[in-house]
């Protein structure tokens, strides 16, 4: 089976493919490494955060 | 294998996702880059990379 060209896929298509092929590291790296956003928010090791701080981060994301 | 910090951070992140009733679609350790990748969220719109030092990055995908 020939692999699809991951670089040509939209993010949505890539995610659909990854869900169906969760061991395909090449596809996963295309999404998570090659298309990594320079604006992605970075957080420290969660041991230095309170549970409340952590929950607040996820709460804001979950409202979308 | 993931580092100790990475393993602990993964538990914290997954627990918070679960607290917010967010499904986790992909959980993957990449032995080459030494990253953990998590694809989560009702619309697969939450992408998380957990680095070897236990710090992590949150990418919110508008396109989903």
UniProtKB/TrEMBL annotation, chain A:
Highest rank taxon of the organism: Bacteria
Protein name: Uncharacterized protein
Organism: Crocosphaera subtropica (strain ATCC 51142 / BH68) (Cyanothece sp. (strain ATCC 51142))
Automatic annotation (TrEMBL), chain B:
Organism of provenance: Crocosphaera subtropica (strain ATCC 51142 / BH68)
Pfam families in alphabetical order: DUF6888
Protein name (record): DUF6888 domain-containing protein
Residue ranges of every copy of the DUF6888 domain listed in the record: 1-57
Superkingdom as given in the UniProt entry: Bacteria
């Amino acid at each position: 089976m020939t692999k699809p060209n991951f670089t040509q896929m939209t993010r949505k298509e890539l995610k659909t493919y990854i869900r169906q092929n969760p061991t395909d590291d090449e596809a996963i790296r295309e999404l998570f490494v090659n298309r990594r956003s320079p604006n992605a928010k970075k957080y420290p090791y969660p041991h230095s955060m309170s549970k409340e701080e952590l929950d607040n981060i996820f709460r804001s994301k979950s409202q979308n | 294998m993931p580092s100790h910090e990475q393993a602990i951070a993964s538990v914290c992140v997954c627990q918070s996702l679960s607290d917010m009733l967010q499904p986790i679609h992909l959980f993957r350790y990449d032995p080459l880059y030494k990253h953990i990748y998590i694809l989560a969220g009702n619309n697969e719109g939450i992408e998380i990379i957990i680095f070897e030092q236990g710090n992590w990055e949150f990418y919110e995908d508008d396109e989903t």
